[in-house]
């Protein structure tokens, strides 16, 4: 007899941090939205080290709906990426939907997001808060951030960082979200080979409880993470292509300049022309620094290749189908 739990139609992953006031209402809303569409579901609440009693609320919800409401609790605050990763690991549904716990994302969007994954063949569907119910101090930086991310990544999404997204199950089981990379999950998904990425305009509600957990520092972290994920997507498996190329160019440029200065001095000296000692010329020291930097960059690429060669996942590839 097989006692394995049935695979739900939808797994709803909700990362939370000090959101106790909204959890009961959110769980009920998810139930109404999925039940009204005839979908079986599980709601996974991931408590990212809350200190306001949020976990006690999750425990009560899980006790009232065993097997439907599930909870994961971190011993301390690790961040949204860690919470999403834990939720992705635990998710059993064929479609996984993520949303924030502050009631600004609408669970009524879940059936349509799932339909786009199942019927239209998308790997990932990202929400677009076209009419965003946030202060202008959050809206303007977000527009600038999204424009920059579109330009760098080439993924034409209006709202890369929207918490309301739907994924094919294979996507969340294939990507690793860490640090602050939750902002760039579409980039990570494309890097893993999932290229059918869509977008849906979603309803966005004003915040009713608490306050935003993100400050100005997220903009700095966001752009640093954008540089990281862009580098990893292009050169993560072959760092020598970047560092080796730059190092070789700098080494050749510095070497040619140094040789030219020395030859120029010898020619002038042989002809009895006025000359300036090589060591008195700033260009000579610039050439030496360029030579040294070229060697260092080349060695950086070489060390990166050595690390990759010995990595446990060096031959880990995302497979779509096998026959």
What do you see in this structure?
The protein is of the alpha/beta class and 323 residues long. It has helices spanning 20-36, 54-64, 80-90, 110-118, 136-153, 169-172, 185-191, 217-235, 239-270, 282-309; strands at 10-16, 41-47, 69-73, 95-98, 124-128, 165-168, 197-201. It folds into 2 domains: 10-235, Spore Coat Polysaccharide Biosynthesis Protein SpsA, Chain A (Alpha-Beta Complex), CATH 3.90.550; 239-309. It has 10 helices and 7 strands. A 7-stranded mixed sheet has the order 3-2-1-4-6-5-7, with helices on both faces. Strand 1 (10-16), helix 1 (20-36) and strand 2 form a beta-alpha-beta unit. The two termini are 29 Å apart. The mean pLDDT is 86.
Give a short overview.
The protein is of the alpha/beta class. Helix content is 48%, strand content 11%. A seven-stranded mixed sheet has the order 3-2-1-4-6-5-7, with helices on both faces.
């Amino acid at each position: 007899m097989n006692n394995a739990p049935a695979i739900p139609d939808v797994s709803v992953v909700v990362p939370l941090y000090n959101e106790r006031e909204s959890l009961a209402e959110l769980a009920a809303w998810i139930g109404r939205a999925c039940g009204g569409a005839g979908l079986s579901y599980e709601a996974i609440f991931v408590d990212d080290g809350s200190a306001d009693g949020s976990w006690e609320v999750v425990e009560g919800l899980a006790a009232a709906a065993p097997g439907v409401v599930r909870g994961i609790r971190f011993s301390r605050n690790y961040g949204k990426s860690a919470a999403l990763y834990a939720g992705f690991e635990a998710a059993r549904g064929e479609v996984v939907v993520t949303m924030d716990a502050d009631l600004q994302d609408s669970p009524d969007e879940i059936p349509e997001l799932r339909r786009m994954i199942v019927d239209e063949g998308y790997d990932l569907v990202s929400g677009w808060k076209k009419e965003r119910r946030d202060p202008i101090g959050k809206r303007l930086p977000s527009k600038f951030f999204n424009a920059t991310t579109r330009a760098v990544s080439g993924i034409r999404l209006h709202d890369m960082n929207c918490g309301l997204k739907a994924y094919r199950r294979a996507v969340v089981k294939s990507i690793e979200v860490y640090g602050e990379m939750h902002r760039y999950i579409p980039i990570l998904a494309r890097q893993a080979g999932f290229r059918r990425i869509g977008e849906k305009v979603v309803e966005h509600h004003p915040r009713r409880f608490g306050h935003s957990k993100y400050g100005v520092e997220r903009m700095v972290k966001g752009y640093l993470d954008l540089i990281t994920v862009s580098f990893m997507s292009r050169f993560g498996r072959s760092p020598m292509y970047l560092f080796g190329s730059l190092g070789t160019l700098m080494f050749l440029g510095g070497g040619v300049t140094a040789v030219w200065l020395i030859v120029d001095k010898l020619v002038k000296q042989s002809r009895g022309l006025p000359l300036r000692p090589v060591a008195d010329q700033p260009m000579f020291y610039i050439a030496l620094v360029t030579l040294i930097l070229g060697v260092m960059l080349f060695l950086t690429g070489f060390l990166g290749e050595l690390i990759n060669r010995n990595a446990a996942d060096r031959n880990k590839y995302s497979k779509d189908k096998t026959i």
